[in-house]
Amino acid sequence: MPQHHYEQTMARLLPAIxxxxxxxxxxxxxxxxxxxxxxxxxxxxGDAIRYAVLAPGKRLRPALVLMAAEACGGTIQQALxxxxxVEMIHAYSLIHDDLPAMDDDDLRRGRPTVHxxxxxxxxxxxxxxxxxxxxQQLAECGQSGNAGGNPQHLxxxxxxxxxxxxxxxxxxxxADDLACESGHLPAxxxxxxxxxxxxxxxxxxxxxxxxFLESIHRRKTGALFSVSLRIxxxxxxxxxxxxxxxxxxxxxxxxxxxxxxxxxxxxxAEADLGKRVGKDIERGKLTYPGLLGLPGARxxxxxxxxxxxxxxxxxxxxxxxxxxxADFVLSRTR
Length: 334
Description:
By secondary structure, the chain is mainly alpha-helical. The protein is built from 16 helices and two strands.
C-alpha cells in the first residue's frame, strides 16, 4: 500500500481521535458540571491527566480501533469510545512505566514525563484515574446507544480491555521486563542472556531467550495492539472469522512494533525519537538487536510485518488502511 494512502487515512482519522480525547478529559469549570472528569476532580490531577493523554503522539492504538471498525463494515462514530478507552490505558501505562521505580525516564514524546512535569504522587494518581476512566468510556457508550453491534459485543469489549491491561498481559509483561534488569530472571534465561552478551551462547540458548523476549512483548506491547483491533471489530459488529483475522494480524504487528522500538533505541537520534536513547544498552536489557544483531532484528521485523499483512487477506481492499499502518510500523523513525 502506498505510504501516501496511509498518511491520508491518518489525516482523516486524527481529527476525530483528538477531538474525542479532548472531550473525554475535560474538567468542570465554574458552574459547569458537564466536564467528563467531574466536578470533584482536583485541578492538578485533571491537568496531569490531560498532559498525558493529549501529549503529541502517533495515536496508533486508537487509529487501529477505527481502522478495524471500518474494515468490518462499521463507522468511526461507533468505534470512537473504544479508541478513547484504549488510548487512556496506553497513557496510563506510559505514565507508570516512566516512573523512577520502573523505567525511570524523564522524557516522553519530546516533553518532560508526567512525574517530572508534576510530581511522582500526582503521576501515580493520574495513571490510577485513567484506568477506570477507560472503562467508563465503553460503559457510557453502551448506555447512550452509540455503540455498534449488540450489548453482548460491548460486554466482550470491556472484558477484552480488562484482560489486555491485567496481570497476564500489559502488567505482567512489564513485570517480566523489569525482572530482566533486576536480576529476577529464571535461572536458565539469566545464564543464556549472560552467554549472549559474551557471545558464547548456543543456538538453543538463543532460541530460548528469544521465546522469552517475545513472551514479554506480546504481552507488554502486543496485547494493546490486539485489543485495539478486537474492540474496533466488536463495536462494528464483526463476526468470529473477522475477529480471528484481526487478532492474527495484531499478533504480528504488535511484536514488529516492539522490535522496531528496540532498533530505534540503538540507532535513532533523541530529538527524532522524543525520548532518551541508548538506555536499553546501558541497563543491559534483553533486546532484539542484542539478541539477533541489528541486521537480524531488521529482517525479523520485516518478516513480522509481511505475515501481518497476509493475515488481512479475507478483508480485501477494506483492510488497505491496516496494511498501510503495518508498512509504517516497519519504516517509522520515532
